[in-house]
Design brief:
With 323 residues, the chain is an alpha/beta fold. The protein is 29% helix and 27% strand.
């Protein structure tokens, strides 16, 4: 019998309830996992709110770490007892045990704690997608990272800085400045109401950044457009501050000549080759000390509290659940 967190109906955190469920044996190409740590992401909140559809089981969550407990038929490359991480569909990670397609399961190098991987896996894959597939970031590039003290923000800041980029981060309060700097931000802009474009212009001698990563949404995206150089990229990757108002194509060009991306990490992870490549690079970066992700733990039964804390914007670093 698995312990699960189920969504009663789309809405607030009060709609999340603890329940139990019987699991069938793993099917063809599946493995049974005994989960040890479960990542908490804004995707989970969007699922709870009804912005992203859930399967009939109504269990949110897109990543976890666990131990293989049983193998379905035609599973190769995995053994009972293997320690693995997974991310992506099928959704339903908020559980003590579950069945998962074997191709999703990636073995974890020895020495990497389960909790650290669970806190960083989806965020790391998102970072790999943004820093490589959406816009190649390296030495000589300058990027803007919103919410640079948050889970994804710290990871993007740390990885972009390690690649040789200059990172300008934004944070919501003075208390978060040192967190962003410790992650590798070269410059930090404080306050959601700050004039981002003016600050970026000061830091870049008027040139603007090559790429900007905006997971805040709301009215922030419109302000972000003014921070990017001609032919630069604005990647809209979330809306933690609320829905994004419609963007007029004339705000992108021809004067600004901007490229606006709305990449989905779930779509990226549905490409098996892209998923495996990103996963391997993330785990290698963690094992090599490039990505040092801090996490805050909650019990699975406190999933509602974890989501509320993440949604409030008062947390720093990543969050994960312990079954």
């Amino acid at each position: 019998m698995a312990v699960i967190v189920r969504l009663k109906a789309p809405g607030g955190v009060e709609q999340l309830e603890l329940a139990s469920a019987d699991l069938p044996p793993p099917g063809r190409g599946e493995v049974r996992l005994r989960q040890t740590a479960i990542g908490v992401n804004f995707i989970d909140i969007y699922q709870r709110l009804g912005l992203y559809a859930l399967a009939p089981e109504r269990i949110p969550g897109v990543e976890a770490v666990g131990v293989v407990a049983a193998l379905g038929i035609e599973v190769t490359g995995l053994e009972v007892g293997d320690r693995i991480a997974y991310a992506g569909a099928p959704v339903g990670a908020y559980a003590s045990e579950r069945n998962m397609p074997a191709w999703r399961c990636v073995k974890i190098p020895a020495g990497l704690p389960d909790e650290a991987v669970a806190a960083a896996f989806v965020k790391g894959i998102t970072g790999d997608m943004l820093l490589g597939r959406v816009f190649p970031v390296g030495r000589g590039t300058t990027v803007l990272v919103h919410s640079a003290a948050g889970g994804l923000g710290q990871l993007l800041t740390r990885w972009a800085s390690a690649r040789g980029a200059v990172v300008i981060g934004t944070v919501g309060s003075p208390a978060k400045v040192e967190i962003a700097r410790a992650a590798g931000a070269h410059h930090v802009i404080v306050g959601r109401d700050a004039d981002f474009a003016a600050a970026v212009a000061d830091f870049t001698a008027g040139a603007g950044v090559d790429a900007a990563y905006d997971g805040v949404g709301g009215t922030t995206l419109q302000k972000t457009l003014g921070c990017v150089r001609p032919f630069g990229v604005v990647a809209s990757v979330g809306q933690s501050a609320g829905p994004i108002p419609p963007v007029d194509v004339n705000d992108l060009g021809p004067r600004r000549s901007l490229m606006l991306a709305r990449p989905s990490v779930m779509a990226h992870m549905n490409d098996a080759d892209a998923y495996r490549g990103s996963a391997e690079r993330v785990l290698a970066a963690m094992a090599g000390g490039v990505l040092e992700v801090t996490g805050k733990a909650y019990d699975l039964r406190d999933a509602a509290l974890a989501q509320a804390d993440l949604e409030s914007g008062h947390t720093t670093g990543a969050l994960y659940l312990r079954p």
